[in-house]
Write a structure and sequence with these properties.
The protein has 194 residues and is α/β, with parallel strands linked by helices. The chain has one domain (6-142): 5'-nuclease (Rossmann fold, 3-Layer(aba) Sandwich). The chain has helices at 12-18, 43-50, 52-57, 64-72, 79-98, 105-117, 126-134, 142-151, 157-170, 177-188, and strands at 6-10, 36-41, 74-75, 121-122, 139-140. Strands 3-2-1-4-5 form a 5-stranded parallel sheet. Strand 4, helix 7 (126-134) and strand 5 form a beta-alpha-beta unit. The longest helix has 20 residues, at 79-98.
């Protein structure tokens, strides 16, 4: 009997970093035992629509191909899970304020969903990582997600190199280059190509 795929929630930045290079990013589940299914929150579109900076930097996000991909894999909670996520969100907002961490509403909602559903949240945001660690929320960085995708056969190493080179060219690395090289070597067992 096949188990349902492990849901994985991408924060906005992880989506923006990967969706143009891996197409379609969300529609296809991948891997076997476990299989993975990538999702974004419905709020990603709200965040994009209300941010002039995001609309300018990521014009491609408004394209039909990308909108359709997101519409198929929006992670929405209903009933008791929604109520629990709202409670978790309130608690995480208070914690972030107390710790003086600058996180958006969308970031905290992603963490709340990860907390309630027990699913990994993919983010490269240091503050999100701190909140996740403090509340035992599984948090992956984009390099780990790339490794999971390679291991599962969703992408190959040539695609990983292409993505890293693109990030470097765009000056949109998910972390400082020295840290990226260390994290890459940890996950891939080889030197980082950039």
């Amino acid at each position: 009997m096949n188990e349902p795929p492990q849901d994985v929630l991408l924060d906005s930045s992880a989506y923006f970093r990967l969706a143009q290079s891996i197409r379609p990013l969300l529609q296809q589940s991948f891997g076997a035992s476990p299989a993975y299914s990538l999702h974004v929150l419905v709020e990603l579109d709200d965040e994009y629509r209300t941010s002039m900076r995001l609309r300018h930097k990521f014009e491609w996000v408004a394209g039909t191909e990308y909108r359709e991909d997101r519409q198929l894999k929006r992670y929405e909670l209903h009933g008791e899970a929604r109520s629990q996520a709202l409670d978790a969100f309130s608690f995480l907002v208070a914690y972030a304020d107390e710790q003086k961490l600058n996180l958006s509403r969308e970031d905290l909602k992603a963490l709340a969903v990860g907390f309630v559903k027990g699913i990994p949240v993919v983010t490269d945001d240091i503050s999100m990582g701190k909140v996740a660690e403090a509340h035992s929320i599984e948090c992956w960085n984009t390099v780990k997600l790339l490794r999971v995708m390679v291991t599962a056969g969703r992408i190959d190493m040539d695609k990983v190199v292409e993505i890293l080179e693109y990030w470097d060219y765009e000056k949109d690395l998910p972390m400082p280059k020295e840290k990226l090289r260390k994290v890459f070597a940890e996950y891939f067992g080889t030197d980082c190509p950039i």
